[in-house]
Automatic annotation (TrEMBL):
InterPro entries the record matches: Iso_Racemase_Enz_sf, MaiA/AMDase
One function term, GO molecular function aspect: maleate isomerase activity
UniProtKB keywords: Isomerase
UniProt protein name: Maleate isomerase
Gene from which this protein is expressed: maiA_2
Domain of life of the source: Bacteria
Pfam families membership: Amdase
EC number: 5.2.1.1
Organism expressing this protein natively: Comamonas brasiliensis
Length: 243
């Protein structure tokens, strides 16, 4: 445990109700760590231009500047849009956040991809609430990066607020399906508005496959970026044992 408190600054989709309580619980588990949030408008997940425009960097940077007022130690974008927009979007966003605020930044997807490299994940299973075309983009982007999606499920929802209404029991059933079908190296719950992070220990005990939930990957990435050991977090999955 560190002697000083770590303040995590989290960029949050405006209609999201899942990631804040989960992130706060994860931060509390780390000890001497707190999470602080700034929102920008995200209400729809689709490939329509209006939906894609929600992730314009100018809107996200304005929210990041508000977090900078709180003197947070790191800024993390807890969202998965780079999965369908392209991973370079998040790399550019982090550079711009750091230039604008002077604070180091990371994202759910950059952290997820780093974790998969460290865990040598070549076969991935994906569970998301998204529509088929969005899911297809995610699968294609991972294929281009050398990771094959061996099984996936999606719920064909586009209204962001509705993602949080999906019951954890339903997610657990989908996780079981993709693990048994695809024999993956890891399974990812690919959305930060799902109540899935708390399922990691249960999934890993039952199927011996790591669950890389994207709320959790954001926290993992922020802790490492802030110079903290993610292993301070216990009971939320194997990913926090990865240095």
């Amino acid at each position: 445990m560190t002697a000083t408190k770590t303040c995590l600054g989290v960029l949050t989709p405006s209609s999201n109700t899942a990631l804040e309580p989960l992130t706060s619980a994860l931060a509390a588990s780390a000890g001497r760590c707190s999470a602080h949030f700034s929102r920008f408008t995200v209400t729809e997940i689709s490939l329509a231009q209006a939906a894609l425009n929600q992730f314009d960097d100018s809107r996200i940077l304005a929210a990041a500047e508000l977090l900078a007022d709180a003197k947070v130690d790191v800024i993390g974008w807890s969202g998965t849009a780079a999965g369908w927009r392209g991973f370079d979007c998040d790399r550019q966003l982090c550079e711009r956040i750091e230039q604008r605020t002077g604070i180091k930044a990371t994202t759910a997807i950059l952290a997820l991809n780093e974790l998969m490299q460290k865990l040598s994940v070549k076969k991935l299973a994906i569970v998301s609430p998204y529509t088929a075309d969005v899911q297809r983009c995610i699968v294609n982007n991972y294929r281009a990066a050398g990771v094959e999606t061996t099984a996936h499920r999606h719920l064909n929802i586009s209204v962001n607020h509705r993602f949080a209404l999906v019951e954890p029991e339903q997610l657990l059933g989908l996780i079981e399906e993709v693990i048994e079908e695809g024999a993956p190296d890891a399974v990812v719950t690919y959305c930060t508005n799902l109540h899935a992070a708390q399922l990691a220990d249960q999934v890993e005990r039952r199927w011996n496959v790591p669950l890389l939930d994207t709320v959790s990957t954001t926290v993992w990435g922020m802790l490492r970026t802030a110079g903290r050991n993610p292993a301070d977090i216990k009971g939320w999955g194997r990913l926090f044992e990865v240095a």
